[in-house]
Amino acid sequence: MSFSWAKPYEPKHPMMRWLDDRLPLPRLVYGAIGGGYPVPRNLNYWWNFGVLAGLFLTIQIVTGITLAMWYYATTGGAFDSVEHIMRDVNGGWLIRYVHMNGASFFFLVTYIHIFRGLYYGSYKAPRELVWMLGLVIYLLMMATAFMGYVLPWGQMSYWGAQVITNFFSAIPVIGEPLRVWILGGYAPDQAALTRFFSLHYLLPFVIAGVVILHIWALHIPGSNNPTGVDVKDERDTLPFHPFYTAKDGWFAAAFLLFFAIVVFFAPNWLGNPDNYIPANNLSTPAEIVPEWYLLPFYAILRSFTADFILPAKLWGVIAMFSSILLLFFLPWLDKSPVRSGNYRPVFKRFFWILVVDVLVLGWVGGQPVKPLTVAVGQIAATYYFLHFLVILPLVSKFETPLPLPNSISESVLHGEEQESAPAGSGRPGVTTVAG
Amino acid sequence: MATEAESAEGSRSLSETGEGVRRRDFLYVAPVAFAGVGAVAAIAPLLWQMAPPADVQAQATTEIDISKVQTGQRIKALWRKQPIFVAHLTPKEIADANAVPVSSLRDPESLGQRTQPGHTEWLIVIGVCTHLGCIPLGTAEGENRGPYGGWACPCHGSMYDTAARIRQGPAPKNLTVPPYKFTSPTAVTIG
């Protein structure tokens, strides 16, 4: 697909040649994840998380389909059917705990994947669409996870559904009718539960479709790499198979070990105990907290406490949605032509401040509303927007990046010594390999 | 500069050479446009089915017997699967509510506007916080009623006064007064 030196598929067995002439599926696989797809040779472990995200999507689909064989989407039966899965269905506890924690791990690896892209400038040209399709996947993941969380019909399920669907009622004029339409009633009830189940089953397959587009768009320019320097010739790359299949395989096995520890020894560590209480539409839990992976956005939502032209409630909802939509414009907000944060000393500092800022927002989102936590949340939320709208454009304007290596192979084969002396900088003996 | 005769000749030659708008273009556009409108119209029932069905709408009225609600007592009822707060206000609660200048409120309404003439001691509201839909505490005995003696939402700290008006916190509106009427001195129909 991508580079001229990519090896074309050559069927060895006559059967495969017969198949290739009629349905070139092995050719597609070979060119996409086989020996026919050249990948930069210097990818570090941060590049393993995309494959892991794909692995967790697969785990979620497989365990989800099996759980659906036992789950009843009725307000009277949902909670009991989940308990039935946990207690009586053969291995049901395992499948449900894998599904429950699989969602958390899917978000964990996706967040690492997103921050890897932020640090190494993977959103920059020519990969803007790869980035934007990734954000679409992320939005779909949040919708899917929210609807999945409603299905057990526990207290957090019910009140989470109530609070999230109330976001829409913040919209002027059409808000309340829209909320009633989404729920199919005036409060979460059977209609809402059934449609959430229907959509929760559908959306993972939509995600899988967008993942295919995401990978397709990625394979046009090929992967970014830790230097952020473009691939120049064959010495810069290795075939995906066997090099990256082996590396991804070993890392997936190691990571699944970590996943297994949580599933087997702390399966409810990331969950909320209130969701083991059946839904009660007359009693709100003392503290409504979303799952950990949505906490930073929840903190932004709650940061607005006073009306300013528009009601505070509407501001909160606008800010929460903008915090993600803003990322769609990132390729054009960060104008620096240097991709990798390794060569951007000022950007690198602000990147780590952003990481801390998002962690602080996550902490605030999980705390009860108190003057102190609200104030911390307001500062952190303001900084989040400042980072993308002010700091990044300014840094890309005023920062002097470090010199880039001539090529990927040179940075790999000659070590750090020559990285700091690019072609044309006047130091002798630098351009011998790359010519 | 083109004269009228020249431009008329130009347009004639265009239609003769097959450029410009032709009958065939109309034949392409008309059926595609017709099919497009039809396809969009077909989406309507798919969206409409998601609105509240007839049985949900049929739960639109609820009868509440208020004969046993003592002065100062508050009860919960259910209307359209949403809680209704019925509060039998004490003279002090009424005085507290009337002591607040209406213009100082975020959602300016007097207690009189929120109750029915001749029944000002009966406050009936939907018990759903206008922020994000939690049920405020303060109806049952011993629950936190907040600094204004009304209701206190546990989710994001909205505080309501004895007339269930928003006084503090993120909620934009007072607790909603549903449509209701007194069918007898001791019975109320909501909806």
Secondary structure: helix percent of chain A: 55-70%
Largest sheet of chain B: 3 strands, antiparallel
Distance between the termini of chain A: 26 Å
- Given the structure, what is the number of helices of chain B? 5
Task: Output the CATH homologous superfamily of chain A.
Answer: Cytochrome Bc1 Complex, Chain C
Strand order of the largest sheet of chain A: 1-2
| Helix/strand order of chain A | HHEHHHHHHHEHHHHHHH
CATH class placement of the largest domain in chain B: Mainly Beta
Find the structural class of chain A using helix and strand composition. Answer: mainly alpha
Number of domains of chain B: 2
List keywords for this structure.
heterodimer, A: 435 residues, mainly alpha, Cytochrome Bc1 Complex, Chain C, two-stranded antiparallel sheet, 16 helices, 60% helix, globular, disordered C terminus, B: 191 residues, alpha+beta, Rieske Iron-sulfur Protein, 2 domains, 3-stranded antiparallel β-sheet, 5 helices, 30% helix
